[in-house]
């Protein structure tokens, strides 16, 4: 008993999960990059 509404909700839920995971990965990479830049600036002083 597969309803198109449940299928649509599952697709939307999967899409949101992908978007949120991508955002977390982006923020993690940005923080890592900024931390490396700050450390490099500290060593140059």
UniProtKB/TrEMBL annotation:
Protein name from the UniProt record: Uncharacterized protein
């Amino acid at each position: 008993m597969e309803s198109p509404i449940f299928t649509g909700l599952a697709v939307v839920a999967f899409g949101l999960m992908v978007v949120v995971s991508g955002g977390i990965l982006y923020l993690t990479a940005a923080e890592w990059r900024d931390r490396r830049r700050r450390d490099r600036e500290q060593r140059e002083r």
